[in-house]
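Think of the structure tokens as a kind of shorthand, similar to the way a musician reads notation: each symbol stands for something richer, in this case the local conformation of the backbone. In the example below we present two proteins back to back. Begin with the first one, reading the sequence and then the tokens, and try to describe in your own words what changes along the chain.
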Amino acid sequence: MASHRRPKQPNRARVTVLTTAAAAAVVLSSQAANAAPSENPSKGEVKAKVDKLYQQAEQATEKYNGAKEKQEKLQKEISTIQDNVAKGQQELNELRDGLGSMASAQYRSGGIDPALQLFLSADPDDYLDKASTLDQLSTQQVDALKKIQEKQRELAQQRSEASGKLKDLDSTRTELGKKKKEVQGKLGAAQKLLNSLTAEEKAQLAEEEARATRASEREVLKASGSGSGSDAGTAAGTGSSAPVSNGSGRAGAAFAAAQSKLGTPYVYGATGPSSFDCSGLTSWAYAQAGVGLPRTSESQTGAGTRIYSASQLQVGDLVFFFNDLHHVGLYAGNGQIIHAPRSGTVVRYESMNTIGGPFMFGVRV
């Protein structure tokens, strides 16, 4: 008689695992579907990412500038110390030679008993003069020894100082290399994103920037009272002359110098006259007015009186942006600045509202 067995029931744990796996597969499929569009980001998304990368590159650029400035300062200090050490060593050698000559003379004259020297001397007065000289040599010898000891201590201190600065220089060079690599990495990533755009999208972005620049030029013209917006040229694109600044004194002279560089390309670490980064432009412009500014944007914040209200700014004032103060320009009037924005751009006018970071304060040099 055939046996009748009940069908084997599925294991509850196995059912649970299968159900969970199926649900996970649905979730992953949904995520993949949602992620797919990001493989081809829109023009707006690309611009946002590129702007962020450029901002990070500029932050690294200012740190690079600071490290480079420190390197140059250390090299000068080390060179000065090394020159002083060489000069001091020569002085020490001369002191030692002088001491040796005195010791030899004393040894030669002291080889005979003084009483016998007096007895044998044909001219007692001459001997007494020599005896006085011997006593003087002894005093000079003591003085020479003191000078040698002082010079040795001085040289040891200078050598120690030079050694410490050489270590600082070595670490600064390492930091400089890292910052340069970081800047280049950010710029490379930004360029890769821009290359993903179509020719039409690239042209649209370029036109948007050009429109913004023309709008800023019109505002500057209004502020300087040089005419209507229709008179504005395309200085940022061609390097043509901008309206005469209504600034005065050193600030006005610095602003006029910056205006003469409209259209000059941005290059990180550059201080002019054929290319600039942001703090490179401001330091160069003020140098033309006879004012020396520190190299980095952060250090330039201490170059004068701070102005916290944008309404109180005057043409030629330094203006700083972002919480870490990594961007600086020159105030142009009517809420506009002239600055070197970032890689891929040129020195141009721009509204303070479109910098990408908050206005922190101005500085009247």
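Once you have a description of the first chain, move to the second and do the same.
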Amino acid sequence: MDHGGHGMPMDLPPFTLARGLEFGGDAFFLIGCVVALALYGWGVARLARRGDRWPVSRTASFALGVLTIALVMCTKLNDYGMVMFSVHMVQHMVVSMVSPILLLLGAPVTLTLRALPTAGRGRKGPRELLVALLHSRYVRIVSHPAFTIPMFIASLYGLYFTPLFDFLMDSKLGHIAMMTHFLLVGLFFFWPIMGVDPGPHRPGYVMRMLELFAGMPFHAFFGIALMMASEPMVGTYEHPPASLGIDALSDQTAAGGIAWAFSEIPSVIVLVALLAQWYKSDQRQARRADRTADRDGDQELAAYNAYLASLQGRGR
């Protein structure tokens, strides 16, 4: 396919969903998706061989997360995303907000820790190195809300409203680096919020919700800024190929609408997941309390009743 300025394909026909979903896209992400599914499958199979169960829901969630990446990066959507701001915005929102949530619900770190063998005493194998990484200063910094929230916001405003976006879109390597960055930023932003995998920061459920809603409004503001602009704001999409039959400003307005709408979708998904985790956590605590009461003859309740009786006796 011929490419013009900014590494953009110039001979694409007008966009339709059928054309966008044709197989194509970037081999880098195709290989990455296949490797991710293979490694996850290996972990599940290893647990199964030794008789350990792994929730089907987690496997399905991780597979769906990988497939969403493949959907936007390994199809012709990737080619159209080089020349249409609206299609690119779909890629960005999916890779940075939908895919990370689904991947994290699959608990890949937990699976890895359970599947990898423990090295002998005094030795360090892959499992021990992963544990050390999870407890390292680097991971504590990049997973802290003071880092993840500003980075999540800067990935919008610091990229699209500066010449950096045009620079990255000027080469295939730059485009791959940008989309990989979106994925990593999404993973680190949602990792402590989801709370499925172990990590250095595990705030309470209310704090997780506050962290979630601290970042989402900025996506809405970004989308509104694009929708209200009276001229194209990104040089890459200022002159779309004539073969597409689109207007740059109208396409930018559509991109803004997509960014605004996507600020709601992950919020709902994460909120439902957090409420479900909260409920399960309360249920586990209640069962532990019941077991403790069964073991000690409910001494805590008996002591409380004795306390109430003493108060009643004093009041006479």
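Compare your description with these statements about the second chain. Residues 194 and 274 are 7 Å apart (CA to CA).
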